[in-house]
Amino acid sequence: MFFMHSRQETGKNHQFYRFMYESGHPLIQLDKLIDWQWIYQKLLPYYSPTKTGRPTVDPLFLIKILVIQGLEGLCSVHL
Known about the structure:
Number of helices: 4
Largest sheet: none
Number of strands: 0
Strand content: under 5%
Radius of gyration: 15 Å
Order of helices and strands: HHHH
Helix content: 55-70%
């Protein structure tokens, strides 16, 4: 089952991280450039259209986590 946040929830999230970062920060600049709805459309075929099972984590959050990891130099695995 595909889970997607509403535009209002997404707008609140945008306001929150714009408060955390300066307007010139790469995350803010990327947010202005990327069409996040396009990513939803590309990911939709990989999720079941039925309402059975548990809802997923919003797949856009998973993509944004990877972007933040790359930009901030965060590593999830320590050797």
